[in-house]
Amino acid sequence: MGTATASTTRRHLLTRLAPGAVALLLGTLLPACGATDPPQATTLPASPTQRAAATAARATPATARPATQPPANTPTSSPVALRPTSQVATPTLGPPPTPDVIGVDCGAGQSYRPNPQSSDPYLHRVAGEGVASPFTEWVRERAALIVLGTVRERQPARWTTPDGRRPVNPHAQDGLQIISPILVAVEQVPKGAYPLPDIYLAAPGGTIGPDCAEYSGSGPRAQHSLNRRILYLLNPEPDFAALTAVPGDDRYRYYRADYSYTVAPDDTVTIGPERDIMGNTYDNPPRTLPLADVLREIAALLATPARPTPTPTR
User: What percent of the chain has pLDDT over 70?
Assistant: First the structure.
């Protein structure tokens, strides 16, 4: 999965207008706002008697002008229908982006700081686009381990430091990141070998105090719904090889969940459709099968070697 970090810096541009430009601007805008007549200066008569007469004249309400009525056959409004000069088709590259699968939202109010200090909050936003594959490829090639289990717990986020605590400088480009551990009770292992009763998955992203990492995008991605049975397609995570998921127990390591299929309450699994931003589509139309049939299909795929890809001829 390729990722690209998005950071936004807001800039404000202040523009000053010379007095002549302001006058020109007002002279242009006033007629548009309904001020069609320029204001008239009033000169009061010099004598007190004349000033009193002028004041009384201004206090007398003027006779209202009759409103101009349009002719009887003239419509009050004439809407104009705009016709486009050309029809441009919008290309569809793939499914729309989906929110972060573990519900992390770093908040719109936070902004990236150039040259951050070690004490500044850590803010990391990544838009990752997954690559779609057919079910057969997920089973045979892309997953080293397939586990059927139930999500029991979504643990608090931690750093990928040995003790899980904040690094001295989280802004250093040293590969450290925030993950959210997912505890899954293992029910069955259709592919690979895993002898432990539980398995820990490292979901990318999470919030720890003022530090936040958020991952979103489109394409295939694993789901981690609590108390749901999920068929996970997993791989070891080389970046977390030195991390133990359970302190004091070196047997438990973190795995990376590349994709998953959720088991419905009626014990069925829907396979497909799979799409990505590059326009690839697989397993379409989708298939909804009993879980037992899906497990048998996985066993059959693993027992049958994949056909070699033919070498293109020149």
Answer: 63
